[in-house]
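Quick one, T. Sequence first:
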Amino acid sequence: AASPPPSPDILHEVLPGDCLHLIAGYYYGDTRLWERIWKANPHLVRNPHVLVLGTYLLVPDAGTPAEPYPDFTARAIGCGPAGAARASAEKAEKQAEAASEKTPAPSKAR
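Structure tokens:
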């Protein structure tokens, strides 16, 4: 059996409000993987807390995001792990709500 092809590398343009945590949360679904992006761009990012607007960062083995980046970032309040994690958690919560709406609630017996 053939193994699935690896995820493609993606170039991400740094936008206002971006940070490595937020970018990792978007492409990987896990803000803690921000160091992957930092290590892939040593010539562009000397300080992981300072990103230059307009820079194109290589995001290695990026997954295919389920939503547009502006929608994801609109839910993230502030940059850093807390903001990006909050956005990821809200996304999961909305998906769970949508799934529960499809399943009717059991009726209560009296």
